[in-house]
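Appendix B, record 7
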Amino acid sequence: MTDADTPLLIIGNKNYSSWSLRAWLLLRVFGVPFRERMLELDTPEFDAQIRALSPSGRVPALHDGDVRLWDSLAIAEYANERWLGGRGWPPEPAPRAYARAISAEMHAGFTALRVELPMNCTRKRAEAPALGADAAADVARVQSIWREARARFGGGGAFLFGAFSIADAMYAPVVLRFVSHAIAFDSAATRDYAGAIVALPALQEWLTDAAAEPQSDIHERMKP
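Structure tokens (predicted):
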């Protein structure tokens, strides 16, 4: 496969771009070959280049031949059909339906959590911040999702549905937010799940790259 034939994933800074991580991690864990191009967020260069690469003006975006996609969940669904042979979702109908539901919930919700616990892979708080009621409810809801998925469907492995899935890619940035902001895990199940995500070699690769990026004060008010 030549470079021209290899899919291109356009991402933002690895330190700050949670949506970029979702698409990138899924492709990397499943061994899909791809090129990546990073555009630094909140810069004139990003503003000048992104519309030609992503119609929404946001990252991530995937280019695969004539196919152009600009949404993390759409990229995940496309990858599942194009390269994964359906392995991105659990094989059985009930867990697959649950995985899709919680992935859609992550995709559409948890606004308060995103605002109050912004993504910053290199920041490690000594103690958790005081959260507003909505953000605290989001934290509790996320952990209840993890507990239920693990209890009902996770017996075959360390992830939400045993094997790594699109749902894990969707929730991986939340794990990093919890770790960075010293959010307490409410059970052994949620703590162990977070540990399994962080221990992924692909996630460690992302964190190593994030630590090597230039850090900017502008991202102390990081976007969700």
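Remarks on this record: The domain at 3-86 is CATH 3.40.30.10 (Glutaredoxin). The radius of gyration is 17 Å.
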